[in-house]
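User: Please fill in residues for this 437-position structure.
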């Protein structure tokens, strides 16, 4: 099997790793890849959004199918182009990717389909914003409708803050065109959970759930980032729980059905960001692709031997998965992201990275790294590496991830020491409860 892997971050390194775990004979061509992916694939210096060049490469190398990591090429219509050329590709069309690229579209689709989500009003003028804020009340959430690199969501304690955030988006264009339409949304209380559905447009396989850590600093403080760490599985969603059935029946099936009814079926990976509220799970957002850094824990936690690559290839070819299923996992995985000095505002590049020999129960995924002219590994982006520890429990995975995160050296290295804290707090609560009874 020959696969073209589009992207060059930690998520794509984890995808390459799993492709090779599933079948060591798989040949991977990555565009552009990175120095970590280069150990598993042939990397070509082609940008992930250069759709014309990617079509040419896929044809020249006679790849069997193409796997798209990031959202930008999907938003640019890479899947439409490949399908038009009859080349199998894993990832939604531009119209189906709107589940991620337009929050206004998605909110209206969810309302129509009866999918549980926060109440929201879509606004294009400040006059509409003022009315919406009066209707929704504080606290509230202001969201830029379009893609804003994970930054377009502002939680506001007061109506005044809400108005200020919406003004920055609508009048001061802080997120460019992404903020030409904004949503004023009700604030939801609860714990967040990310769930992932590999889907053919009708049937889906649920991967192990995960929890991300978006803030830069311990204790969930500091600025928002692309994600400083994640772990999987999450005890809030045990394998046999009703939660899976609830999310399949109230979220995933109605959303996919609504997309089919619009003649824009969604195929690929549907990432559902959920809030577990007292009224049950509600959708915070959808993404149209694998999560980063969630993939760096979800794929290692997924039961070995499950041929996820074959299923992705099937979906890429337009074949049916035939039934919904809840995939099993084994043990746990926890990843700690090592970020560069200055991240997230202004990451510094060019710092020399030293990685000691990696133990068996640790996987180091490259995100923002490159080789300099002398061939040394140096930092080349905000999130530099994702250090995944594997174990029988989240605690064990955490210890392994943290220990090796500490052992990797580069100047200005930043990382959180408390990834997985919610899960560990939950476990100690359970242990205390058990002790008391
Ligand atoms: P999003 O980009 O839509 O996932 O939003 C980013 C983050 O903002 C989420 O992960 C939540 O922590 C928070 N958030 C978004 N919408 C809401 C909401 N309606 N209520 C509470 N928190 C929210
Ligand atoms: N970690 C959040 C995302 O991939 O969107």
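Assistant: Residues filled in for all 437 positions:
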């Amino acid at each position: 099997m020959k696969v073209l892997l589009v992207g060059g971050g930690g998520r794509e390194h984890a995808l390459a790793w799993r492709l090779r775990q599933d079948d060591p004979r798989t040949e991977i061509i990555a565009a552009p890849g990175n120095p970590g992916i280069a150990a598993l694939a042939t990397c070509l210096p082609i940008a992930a959004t250069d759709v014309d060049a990617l079509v040419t490469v896929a044809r020249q190398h006679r790849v069997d199918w193409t796997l798209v990591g990031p959202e930008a090429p999907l938003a640019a219509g890479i899947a439409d182009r490949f399908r038009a050329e009859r080349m199998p590709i894993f990832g939604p069309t531009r119209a189906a990717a709107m589940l991620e690229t337009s929050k206004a579209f998605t909110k209206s689709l969810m309302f129509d389909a009866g999918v549980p989500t926060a109440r929201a009003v879509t606004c294009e003028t400040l006059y509409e914003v003022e009315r919406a804020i009066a209707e929704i009340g504080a606290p509230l959430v202001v969201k830029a409708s379009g893609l804003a690199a994970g930054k377009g969501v502002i939680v506001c304690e007061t109506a005044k803050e809400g108005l200020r955030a919406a003004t920055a988006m609508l009048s001061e264009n802080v997120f460019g065109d992404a903020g030409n339409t904004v949503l004023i949304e009700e604030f939801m209380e609860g714990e967040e959970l990310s769930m992932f559905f590999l889907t053919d447009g009708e049937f889906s396989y649920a991967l192990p759930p995960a929890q991300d850590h978006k803030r830069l600093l311990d204790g969930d403080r500091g600025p928002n980032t692309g994600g400083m760490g994640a772990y999987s599985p999450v005890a809030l969603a045990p394998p046999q729980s009703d939660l899976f059935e609830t999310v399949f029946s109230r979220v995933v099936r109605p959303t996919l059905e609504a997309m089919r009814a619009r003649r824009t079926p969604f195929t690929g990976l549907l990432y559902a960001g959920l809030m577990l509220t007292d009224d049950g799970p509600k959708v915070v957002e959808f993404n149209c692709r694998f999560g980063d850094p969630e993939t760096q824990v979800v794929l290692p936690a997924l039961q070995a031997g499950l041929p996820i690559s074959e299923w992705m290839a099937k979906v890429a070819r337009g074949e049916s998965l035939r039934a919904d299923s809840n995939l099993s996992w084994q043990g746990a995985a926890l990843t700690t992201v090592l970020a560069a000095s200055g991240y997230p505002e202004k990451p510094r590049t060019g710092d020399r990275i030293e990685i000691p020999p990696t133990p068996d129960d640790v996987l180091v995924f490259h995100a923002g790294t490159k080789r300099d002219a002398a061939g040394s590994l140096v930092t080349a982006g905000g999130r530099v590496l994702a250090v995944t520890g594997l174990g029988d429990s989240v605690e064990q995975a955490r210890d392994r991830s943290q220990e090796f995160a500490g052992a990797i050296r580069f100047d200005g290295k930043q990382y959180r020491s408390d990834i997985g804290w919610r899960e560990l707090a939950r476990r100690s609560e359970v242990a205390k409860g058990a002790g008391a009874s």
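For context: The chain has a mean pLDDT of 95.
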